[in-house]
Amino acid sequence: MPQEVRGVVAKAKGQPVTVETIIIPDPGPGEAVVAIQACGVCHTDLHYREGGINDEFPFLLGHEAAGVVESVGEGVNDVAPGDFVILNWRAVCGSCRSCLRGRPHLCFDTHNATQKMTLADGTELSPALGIGAFCDKTLVAAGQCTKVDATAKPEVAGLLGCGVMAGLGAAMNTGEVGRGDSVAVFGCGGVGDAAIEGARLAGAATIIAVDLDDKKLEWAKNFGATHTINASEQDPVEKIRELTGGNGVDVAIEAVGSPKAYEQAFYSRDLAGTVVLVGVPNPEMTIELPFIELFGRGGSLKSSWYGDCLPSRDFPMLIDLYKQGRLNLEGFVSETISIDAVEEAFHKMEKGEVLRSVVVI
Ligand SMILES: [Zn+2]
Ligand SMILES: [Zn+2]
Q1: Which among 257, 297, 261 has a CA at the least distance from the CA of 184?
Q2: CATH number for the domain harbouring residue 69
Q3: By residue range, what is the domain housing residue 111?
Q4: Is there a single domain that holds both residue 155 and residue 205?
Q5: pLDDT at 112 over 90
Q6: Distance from C-alpha of 220 to C-alpha of 86, rounded to nearest angstrom
Q7: Measured in angstroms, how far is the CA atom of residue 245 from the centroid of ligand 2?
Q8: 163: CA distance to ligand 2 center in Å?
Q9: What is the pTM (predicted TM-score) of this model?
Q10: Average pLDDT for residues 290-310, to the nearest whole number?
Q11: pLDDT surpasses 90 at 283
Q12: For 63, what's the count of Cα atoms within 13 Å in the CB-facing half-sphere?
């Protein structure tokens, strides 16, 4: 029997989101219905509302979530009703050219649910990142459910589903930060602070946080930044060189999506160093760099999508580290809110007042 639940919907470009009645079908083959317990508010949800992702309104927002599997469809063996799961937007196909070459974390054909959730009048919804979890329950592909230690708090665990994973993975997976490395992170919001946390966890000796806002630099210190630079007061490239014996850092992570910050990251790295771009640029942005510098400095310039994570590998491991007190996930939860307060949370996020507001269902 299809179920009626509450969910947060963006009906039209730029309009405030509203809580609507959503119809959830029973799970079909390969699908699962998950009772959501918590879902973080991410910039991408706001981008959907602003029409910045695509025009397929109405959107069912929310995608950084944890909950309990309620029911599964035919042929689902990896998860079962009652399992505590984090939802992911990288349910790998196992058969694309990337999966077949042993690189499932780069899968080019990830799965979402086949059936549609709808509004009460039958209008089909586009779930954010194929999830749609500001909702009592949601319908996903079973592969989007990653089972983790059920004693983890949902409001903390869910954050691994998107932004925090993107930052941790930018440092640990894409940047391959190792013991003793020096790292600079540009932009100290949720993703940047997660990159700092990831660098700390990976054993970096020097972690330099760069932002324009002193409040965010204070947050960065809580996650393990050893030095902070307010780029509105001093040249971050010069200061980073000074802090690294004149050399620059081994890994520079850009978590803003700004050509200026990228350029600073580029010039902040040591010879043979790595630049990781995890901030999301807009389509109009361009960047110009001296070609010889790309060649002459060696090293690599990389982009990090979803922290190059493989959910089945990374989520349970990171939850275990969190349970052992080695990974500070709690620090990302600025506040917990009700499902009615998402619009207000967008405003707080735009003003840079919170790392993460988390909807608790
Ligand atoms: Zn694939
Ligand atoms: Zn997100």
Answers
A1: 261
A2: 3.90.180.10
A3: 3-161+328-360
A4: no
A5: yes
A6: 25
A7: 37
A8: 5
A9: 0.95
A10: 95
A11: no
A12: 26
